Amino acid sequence: NIISSGGHLDWWDGIEAFLVTESMVLKHTAKLDPSVPSVKELGFNVNYTVYASIALQTGNSSNPQNVALEPVYTVRSLLLSAAAVPFYYAALVFSVSPIVTIGLLVNSLFISLTAVVIFCISAEVQRSMKVALVLSLIYSVCSFVWPYNTTFWVQPLQGFLLTLSVYLLILTHHRNHSFLCRYTVLRSKWSGSLLAGLAGLSLALSVFAHPSSLIYIPAFLAYSFFSVMRQQKKDFIYLLVILTVVLSLVGLINYIRFGSFT
Questions:
Q1: Is 73 left (phi over 0), alpha (psi -120 to 50) or beta?
Q2: Spatial separation of the C-alpha atoms in residues 194 and 196, rounded to whole Å
Q3: For the chain, does the N or the C end have fewer beta carbons within 10 angstroms?
Q4: What is the tens place of the pLDDT at every residue in 206-234?
Q5: Phi, psi at 32, each rounded to 5°
């Protein structure tokens, strides 16, 4: 389920992220540990690719079979691997294959959650439950996200976090006349700041999931500035502070892993 029918780089993305998850659970490290059992269970091609990956990251790509197989940080998303850790433990508890469990359930969960958020966004914007239901169904079963259900690629997690950021910003703007949440605590004094801060957190975590999310930040900030800041300047400031702090932590983690903040 993790190995797709695409090219070599496609299937390796998911396998490498899975091996990091296994290293987190069994070896208690965020590095890919080549001694985890799935390296041998998944066959020779995976075993050789682990050699090649470690050789590339250590500067010995010309002779991958002669590198020392030691734990190494990979360029894959640590956030996705960490999110799959509870699923790996669940597989151990129920004595089922962690590969099958993670391959079938993790991205399916993120895609389902994204569909729920799309429903909520549509309901807020269109003020119609029927339209929201149709749009969420179109996303779930009629879009290109469908093939991602049985992969362990990072795009569903990235998409969920970006979509959640959109919804939180809309709620920040609509909190006094929310369609779905009209009788909740959204009208409290600190609700706007909390929602804006969570939007900034979700947006920053999407960058941790995949760095390409950086290209969306200017659009999010522009929308926040012209919609949220008109109501409360402090809400926009909360968003900026949380976004800056978490992005700084992402840069620090990059520096620890690769010696570079970027």
A1: beta
A2: 6
A3: C
A4: 999 999 999 999 999 988 888 766 667 78
A5: -80, 115
